[in-house]
Amino acid sequence: MRYVLPQPYRDLDHTADAGVEVEGASASEALARLVLAQSALLAGGGPVAVKREERIVVGAQTALDGVAVALLRELLFRFSTERVIAGSCEVLALPPRSSAEVAIGFGRYDPELHAEGVDLKAVTRHATRFEEVDGRWWAQVIFDI
Where are the beta strands (DSSP E) in the chain? Predict the structure, then answer.
């Protein structure tokens, strides 16, 4: 299933950092929503018009929280170097396979449309979680700002 902006997430109160928490019916949905929560922060809530799609493979980690951090770091790198933001996300494969694979729809960063965006510096492992609780998947990530 392909998820697009906007997606629900909760801001986490964290001094000198920005954090998000998402939930989903599956691990794939939770991961896609984490990707789009990061995008919403970068875009300041502005729309992201998808112009191209790319498959991204993230080497397998020992747990899903590691997969999430690795993927978000890759997308933050793309934002920093190419000025693109993920406007859609489809999770194609998750561990226990050898790697995680996602299809990302990228749109260009627009300084006017996205002027309210948060200047994310890094994706941290601090307080990261990705777990199933009572049949729902919960994930959270803290970003350095």
Answer: 2-4, 10-12, 17-24, 52-59, 84-93, 99-108, 122-123, 129-133, 136-144
Rg over CA atoms, the chain: 14
Q: How far apart are CA 145 and CA 124, in angstroms?
A: 11
Q: Hey, is 5 helix, strand or coil?
A: coil
pLDDT in tens, 36-47: 999 999 999 999
Of 140, 144, 104, 110, the residue nearest 124 (C-alpha): 144
| The residue to which tokens 């561990």 are assigned | 95
pLDDT by residue (tens digit) across 53-76?
A: 999 999 866 689 999 999 999 999
